[in-house]
Write a structure and sequence with these properties.
It is a single chain. This protein has helices spanning about 20-30, 50-60, 85-90, 100-105, 125-135, 165-175, 190-205, 235-250, 265-270, 310-315, 335-345, 375-385, 395-400, 405-410, and strands spanning about 5, 10-15, 40, 65, 70-75, 85, 110-115, 140, 145-150, 160, 180-185, 205-210, 215-220, 225-230, 250-255, 275-280, 280-285, 295-300, 325, 345-350, 355-360, 365-370, 390-395, 415-420. By secondary structure, it is α/β, with parallel strands linked by helices. The protein has 2 domains: about 1-20 and about 235-420, Alpha-beta prism (UDP-n-acetylglucosamine1-carboxyvinyl-transferase, Chain), CATH 3.65.10.10; about 20-230, UDP-n-acetylglucosamine1-carboxyvinyl-transferase, Chain, CATH 3.65.10.10. The strands form 6 sheets. The chain has a 4-stranded mixed sheet. A 4-stranded mixed sheet has the order 2-15-17-16. A hairpin with a 5-residue loop joins strand 12 (about 205-210) and strand 13. The structure holds ligand EPZ.
């Protein structure tokens, strides 16, 4: 397993290109199932999760062709000859469950393994099931697989989600595009990835309004046609790299970034003493003075502070002036980076869903272990300003969501290298 070695103490300067959004691409890809015609995605990120989703779609009978080293993906679901999404693939990546809604809509049946828990939480699918059953699906859990069928097709319905689940909104939205009649999704997730999916579905001929708000209205149509669609910029990668100069000092311009993608995150950066300027090319980020100030953060569904940036924000707050509190309200176990940061000299107390971070002057490099995707990158960020070397092991987590991390950080002056163990 590879490790990443970070030698701290270098100020950063230069530009970092931000890739297409992993979490948009992972829902745009299953949308190909809804049409017999090809769907081409441009600006696709080159990540192991995208490869996993490609494998899953191919296992269902779809054809995938990628150009420009994977930045352009053409997916064709003309001949789907298998409706079983196997545990072996699904257990590696929860987003595999996003084939459920499209398969029900296109094929009228689907067998999808439950993803099982993951490091950050149990991650059930009750809201997905609730919404799809409201559309007329019959779903039964057997041997760890969801057996779903819609013998009479799907029918539009009014669906109120108990929680603004991103995945449940995506599954229901995709399924409802081919349902008979009108569907209303209330308390829908509002993430930019939902809007990107709706934009792509509209290009395919779907009739959708209200995406980006809590109420999405879909008029079902008989069929969808092919389309070409650019994957939206990855707001989580954007926020991650905005924290690099905030932690290490200097100034970095994140190319393709827009304030609108990270509004609540930018408000917290501003309160911490970080200057963010929107330019024609992206977002320019620099500390206003030597040390950042402590801030309190509560993760919430969009447009609130994103849970996927909580670990990275904690890395910055470890050396802030004062005490910060982070409330993680989305997942039940998303502080696994805290004990690793403590190994680097951070002073963090975790009680349930709240982490209290007492700022220290400086962290010290140490061998640390990545536990999940966002935790792994938070350890690398912490290493940028730590004294000496930080060795982050198990970086396969990183490859799921961040392409070319070493190249992007070294291009702005950081000393970061990947070593094979
Ligand atoms: C998406 O996961 C993202 N993944 C996650 O990013 C992100 O953290 C999450 O949304 C929240 O923003 C992808 O888009 C591929 P949810 P998802 O359904 O759809 C509970 C990353 O690091 N819940 O909004 O699974 C669930 O257990 C990943 O890129 C139910 O209880 O998120 C969790 O506590 C991590 N029942 C909360 O809701 C359900 O049926 C949020 O889940 C569904 C969800």
């Amino acid at each position: 397993m590879d490790s990443i070695v970070v030698t701290g103490g270098r100020e950063l300067s230069g530009e970092i290109p931000i890739a297409g959004a992993k979490n948009a691409c992972l829902t745009l890809m299953p949308a190909t199932i809804l049409s017999e015609e090809p769907l081409t995605l441009t600006n696709a990120p080159r990540l192991s999760d995208i490869k996993t989703m490609t494998q899953l779609l191919e296992s269902l009978g779809a054809e995938a062709a990628s150009m420009q080293e994977g930045q352009v993906l053409t997916l064709s679901s003309h001949n789907l000859d298998n409706h079983i999404a196997d545990y072996d693939i699904v257990r590696k990546m929860r987003a595999s469950n996003l084939v459920l809604g499209p398969m029900l809509a296109r094929l009228g049946h689907a067998v999808v393994s439950l993803p099982g828990g993951c490091a950050i939480g149990a991650r059930p699918m009750d809201l997905h099931i609730f919404g799809l059953e409201k559309l007329g699906a019959e779903i039964e859990l057997k041997d760890g697989y969801l057996h779903a069928k819609a013998p009479r097709g799907l029918k539009g319905a009014e669906i109120e989600l108990a929680f603004a689940s991103v995945g449940a909104t995506e599954n229901i939205l995709m399924a409802s595009t081919l349902a008979k009649g009108t569907t209303v999704i209330r308390n829908a997730a509002r993430e930019p990835e939902i809007v990107d999916l709706a934009d792509c579905l509209r290009k395919m001929g779907a009739q959708i309004e209200g995406d980006g708000t809590s109420e999405i209205v879909i008029q079902g149509v008989d069929r969808l046609h092919g389309a070409t669609h650019p994957v939206v910029t990855d707001r989580i990668e954007l926020g991650t790299y905005m924290l690099a100069p905030a932690i290490a000092g200097g100034e970095v311009e994140c190319l393709g970034g827009k304030i609108s993608l990270v509004e609540s995150f930018c408000q917290k950066l501003d309160a911490a003493g970080i200057h963010v300027e929107e330019t024609a090319k992206g977002l320019k980020v620099a500390r206003r003075n030597g040390r950042v100030s402590a801030v309190d953060v509560t993760t919430e569904p969009f447009p609130g502070f994103p849970t996927d940036l909580q670990a990275q924000m904690m890395a910055m707050l470890c050396t802030a002036e004062g005490t910060s509190t982070l409330h993680e309200t989305i997942f039940e176990n998303r502080f696994m980076h805290a004990p690793e940061l403590t190994r680097m000299g951070a002073n963090i107390e975790v009680h349930g869903g709240t982490a209290t971070v007492h700022g220290v002057e400086k962290l010290k490099g140490a061998p640390v272990m990545a536990t999940d995707l966002r935790a792994s990158v938070s350890l690398i960020l912490a290493g940028l300003a730590a004294e000496g070397e930080t060795i982050v092991s198990r970086v396969y987590h990183l490859d799921r969501g961040y392409e070319k991390v070493v190249r992007k950080l070294t291009s702005v002056g950081a000393k970061v290298e990947r070593v094979r163990e």
